[in-house]
Amino acid sequence: MAYDKFTVLKSTAVPLPIENVDTDQIIPARFLKATERKGFGDNLFRDWRYNGDDTPKKDFVLNNPIYSGKILVGGKNFGSGSSREHAAWAIYDYGFRCVVSSFFADIFKNNSLNIGILPVTVSPEFLDKIFKAIEADPKAELEVNLPEQTVTIVGSGEQESFTINGYKKHNLTNGFDDIDYLQAMKDEIKTFALQREF
Amino acid sequence: MPTTLFDKVWDSHVVRKIEDGPDVLFIDRHFIHEVTSPVAFLGLQTRGIGVMFPEKTFATADHNTPTINQHLPVADPLSANQLKALETNAAKYGISHWGLGNPKNGIVHVVGPENGITLPGMTIVCGDSHTSTHGAFGAIAFGIGTSEVEMVLSSQCIMQPKPKRLRITINGKLGKGVLPKDVPLYILSQISASGATGYFIEFAGEVFESMTMEGRMTVCNLSIEMGARGGMIAPDETTFAYLKGREKAPKGEAWEKAISYWKTLKTDADAKFDLELSYNAADIEPQITYGTNPGLGTGITHNIPAATDVKDGAASYKKSLEYMGFHENEPIIGKKVDYVFLGSCTNGRIEDFRAFASIVKGRHKADNITAWLVPGSHIVESQIKEEGILDILNQAGFELRQPGCSACLAMNDDKVPAGKYAVSTSNRNFEGRQGPNSRTLLASPFVAAAAAVTGVVTDPRELL
């Protein structure tokens, strides 16, 4: 699946200061019945976002018009639980291009990178600064610079670097994906497969 | 250089190492099911590419399937559509498919091992996080996303950075009433649901060495809940005895050759791990969770901890207890239960049904309990009948349902209603996991059985 190239993203952000936000909250299992990848954004955080009668829950951040933007800021261990890529699809489909947290669950992080969402891991201290900046001003902007590997709170200029492996960075900045890469090495894979017993 | 079991299996599957990037890892076995594969097949179609090694992929229907009247057409049109898509895609690309009604159908992580598809030393993936189950055989097995399902279909490889190594050693002997399920729940309560993120676990020590294959599968199944990519246990005579004669396991000369290879799959004496943890078997009592992630659990006789005593942040912890309707410092024992679920890839195997039956035998289901007893496969279902377990269950007022994932993730009709409490042998107690606003307490088949006959959270040791 091709996706938008990612270089520098300057945007306001949506704060979700909760730990262990699991994939069942991001997209509940009952919405996994589609056979095509579309429309998942409508059900992003479905049970936190809506009451049983489909009216919006006033106290949930996605229903608060003062918060918006392409960056989602979550608490520690964001995306824990299932391998369902639908969670990343829902975040992307809703309009987020970047998730910032102090700690990501492994598979969620991989899934995000594979579909063009940049997961940015910052220190717990910097995460706290981001939450405070947004609390003080919901229109506070963050700048996520992938080529430079930095995240900046625009208002105060406070900045932190993040790590990402070179291969994934190259893919994201060029809009390439792993399948393109693997298709180019099929002969090498076939030769390798012949050596395997099973 | 001395190496770990994990390194031996991983390194022998690296097709190419990318500098400052992931390894290209060759995959021996790929399991697919109806939920996470349709978009991957669409991707192949869009790109105009095919399946590279269809004989290395196995399809089974499990997540969406009803657990009653499986001979009838599936009522939910969306579920029926997904099941149909799996069938059509499997046929189109020449992938073997055990759909609904097939005598080998069942939960992917139950049917793989019981048919000898899962073998030591393999790399195994599936678009389901509990693929970690197969690590019980000394395989590297983990869950992948749909983009990766497409990768494996089209190239039999995935691209992964190599995880760090964690060894968890538990020596000693498990006490009375303590089942394999209690072991990972105990570890989870010690290290939290993110305690092993970034690692691949090797479980070692007397507790795992003396455990059955089914128990080892339960342990490895829950390694994902610790945040680990997967968990594995070195293959030994228990492993070989389990595999011998299984349909797709090697036979004759190939079996002998396989055994001599499998015997090399162990961690060398001086091999280094990035992290080592160890616990004593004697400290583990029957466990139960009280919160909304699998790390929020405790021994069944303990009180629910105070916010100050848990690793999760206080705000998240309080939100979790509020959701559950529980309070800090109160006992978990004696809490009223509404539903009991025995099943899932964690505890849907024959030993789990034997354990459950050993407690309910001669007793009767409590009136306030709705019990869903769901075998992990048709083969397990047959064993339950052949061993006379079904009679015991029926005499105690229970019914047996048909195989599938069922109330573990409630994609089918088996949903726990809002506000109700379920003691569940499955693997996740997330908010709404078993149905919107349902409340899940994870536990072993013994604890589930004790709740099923008493109607409240009960220490199973009192009933043994």
Order of helices and strands of chain A: EHHEHEHEHEEEHHH
What topology, given as strand order, has the largest sheet of chain B?
5-4-3-6-7
Question: Helix- and strand-based class of chain B?
Answer: alpha/beta
Strand order of the largest sheet of chain A: 4-3-2-1-5-6-7
* Computed Rg of chain A: 18 Å
Main beta sheet of chain B, described? 5 strands, parallel
Subunit organisation of the chains:
heterodimer
Q: Helix count of chain A, per DSSP? A: 8
What form of chain B results from the Cα inertia axes? globular
Low-confidence stretches of chain A: none
Query: Total number of helical segments of chain B?
Result: 16
Q: Note the beta-strand portion of chain A.
A: 15-25%
Structure explained in plain terms:
Chain A has a 7-stranded mixed sheet. By secondary structure, chain A is of the alpha/beta class. Chain A is built from 8 helices and 7 strands; from the N terminus they run E-H-H-E-H-E-H-E-H-E-E-E-H-H-H. The two termini of chain A are 30 Å apart. Chain B is α/β, with parallel strands linked by helices. In chain B, strands 5-4-3-6-7 form a 5-stranded parallel sheet. Chain B has a 4-stranded parallel sheet with strand order 11-10-9-12. A 4-stranded parallel sheet of chain B has the order 16-15-17-18, with helices on one face. In chain B, helix 2 crosses helix 5. The mean pLDDT of chain B is 97. Chains A and B meet through helix 4, helix 6, helix 7 and helix 8 of A and helix 2, helix 3, helix 5, strand 8 and helix 10 of B.
